[in-house]
Write a structure and sequence with these properties.
This protein has helices spanning 15-31, 40-43, 50-67, 84-95, 98-102, 105-113, 120-123, 125-134, 148-165, 206-215, 231-244, 248-254, 260-274, 276-285, 289-318; strands spanning 2-7, 33-38, 75-78, 140-142, 173-175. The chain has 322 residues and is mostly helical. It folds into 2 domains: 2-181 and 289-318, 3-Layer(aba) Sandwich (Rossmann fold); 183-287, Tyrosyl-Transfer RNA Synthetase (Orthogonal Bundle), CATH 1.10.240.10. The model has no long low-confidence stretch (mean pLDDT 96). It binds adenosine monophosphate and tryptophan (TRP). Tryptophan (TRP) binds next to strand 1 and helix 8.
Length: 322
């Protein structure tokens, strides 16, 4: 498999990002060619400030490394440092019917949450994502469930390109983890996101984690049971299961007859422990910007050649003189 995935530096990376995406990356990098990107040009399609973008970009790279992305096994890249992403994205956005972009659920959600910040960049976001993926001959994309529509659109764009200009791109497939959809601790009907207080950041200190779990909403009733009518407890059970390695049924049995309080207390400690290694590694990397720049340079060296080849091939196929 050839693996590509990315996260937007638009806030702190949280346990949803970890369980949905990064956890898979760490395993996949051992046996496959893998590229992991911090997609900063995607991050500017939603509101941001200079300071936030700079900090979130560096933090994301620290988080990748501390979580176990190994720059000796994979290529860690910063999207903006490889301009071929933008060039291919322009070509894709020019050959794709406008209506295909307007249908994307994440676009509609963002229009709703930030109606005063709806830009051309936000609309064409999936063309840039398709470029990220297709530049590298990617076959599999480890992501959370919310990215499925983007993956489908990538395949639609690839098929359209192939139909018009001749077979160029392969079909890509998403790889979904068990924690592919972790919900907000404050509203279990919405996914955990980087904005607000809905999630636990990988870099949260233990007391913050304890406090957030304590304040997490629960369902009516007292039973620790997984089910459609118990979205809050189901979500906490999923998180418990992912961090402890225990099956959900096993956890339900363990807490039969016990209350939410005890369950939450234990869950907080399991997360705090699960992130202990991460916290220690992160402290070592933090503030070492030179090290980060070095890693990005070597990631770019590994990845860019292939991006250039793909782009050259695409340009030739569509009649751009090179
Ligand atoms: P984003 O935070 O939108 O940049 O997402 C980065 C990666 O994390 C993508 O693969 C997402 O699908 C995944 N992801 C984001 N939020 C969640 C969530 N609440 N549960 C599981 N995966 C998620
Ligand atoms: N759209 C993805 C998200 O919000 C981020 C992303 C950009 C991505 N390009 C990608 C993910 C390529 C996988 C592959 O999470």
């Amino acid at each position: 498999m050839r693996i590509f995935s990315g996260i937007r530096p638009s806030g702190k990376i949280h346990i949803g990002n970890y369980l949905g995406a990064i956890k898979q990356w760490i395993e996949l990098q051992n046996k496959n060619e893998a590229i992991f990107a911090v997609v900063d040009y995607h991050a500017i399609t939603t509101p941001f400030t200079k300071k936030e973008l700079e900090n979130d970009t560096l933090d994301a790279i620290f988080d990748y490394l501390a979580a176990g992305v190994d720059p000796n096994k994979s290529a860690l890249i910063l999207q903006s440092q490889i301009p071929e992403h933008l060039e291919l994205s322009w070509i894709f956005s020019s050959i794709t019917p406008l209506s295909w972009f307007g249908r994307v659920p994440t676009y509609k959600e963002k229009v709703e949450s930030n109606p005063e910040y709806v830009s051309l960049g936000l609309l064409s976001y999936p063309a840039l994502m398709a470029a990220d993926i297709l530049l590298y001959g990617t076959t599999h994309i480890p992501v959370g469930e919310d990215q499925i529509p983007h993956i489908e659109l990538t395949n639609d764009i690839a098929r359209r390109f192939n139909n018009i200009f001749g077979k160029t791109f392969k079909r890509i497939k998403p790889l979904l983890a068990q924690g592919a959809r972790i919900m907000s601790l404050q509203n279990p009907l919405k996914k955990m996101s980087k904005t607000g207080d809905s999630g636990i950041a990988l870099s949260d200190e233990p007391d913050i984690i304890r406090d957030k779990i304590k304040k997490a909403v629960t369902d009516s009733g007292t039973e620790i049971k997984y089910g459609y009518d118990k979205p809050a407890i189901s979500n906490l059970l999923t998180i418990y299961s992912e961090f402890s390695g225990k099956k959900i049924a096993e956890i339900e049995k363990e807490y039969a007859g016990k209350g939410y309080g005890e369950f939450k207390k234990d869950l907080a400690e399991i997360i705090v422990n699960g992130l202990k290694d991460f916290r220690e590694k992160r402290k070592k990397f933090a503030d070492n910007k030179d090290y980060i720049l070095q890693i990005l340079k070597s990631g770019k060296e590994k990845a860019q050649k292939q991006a250039q080849q793909t782009l050259k091939n695409v340009k030739e196929k569509i009649g751009i003189i090179i």
